[in-house]
Structure formats: C-alpha cells, structure tokens
Amino acid sequence: MWDAKFEETLRQFVPFLDDDEPLAPDTSLRDLGLDSMGIIEMMAVLEAEYEVRFRDDMLNMQTFATPGALWGGVSKMVETVS
Asked: Distances in Å between the alpha carbon of 28 and those of 12, 16, 40, 53, 72?
C-alpha cells in the first residue's frame, strides 16, 4: 500500500506500536500514541523525505487519522510534484 520510507517514518512517531506489529491502514494513529506535537514533527520529516508541502486544507484530523488516510494525502502530493 505504501513504501518502506513512509512506514519507517510513521513508526518513529507511534510509540504504542511494537516493532514486530503490522501497521494496518485503518488503525487509529491517535490510539498508537501520535499526539499533536508528533504530528507537527512527522509532517516536517515527511515534507523533507518526499520533497512536498502539506497544504492548509490538509491540516486537519482526518488527514492524520489513520496510516491509510495519511498515505493518501502524501501520495497525492508526490504525484502533483512529479
């Protein structure tokens, strides 16, 4: 569904996910320990890694609700840049 770079980055910010536990697309990131400060830090890392910018309309809880939703946003930004 997403690339290894995305999963590696995301795992840095979800402390309640064990290293050997799979990351499901519909899992609540908040339930995995992603907080508002983590969202801000993760956004900066994702922007640098993928050379994109989160638009204002993406800065909402729906974008950061699940790995699938977040990847959907990131992948659309990457397509736009390419």
From this structure: 15, 11, 17, 23, 15
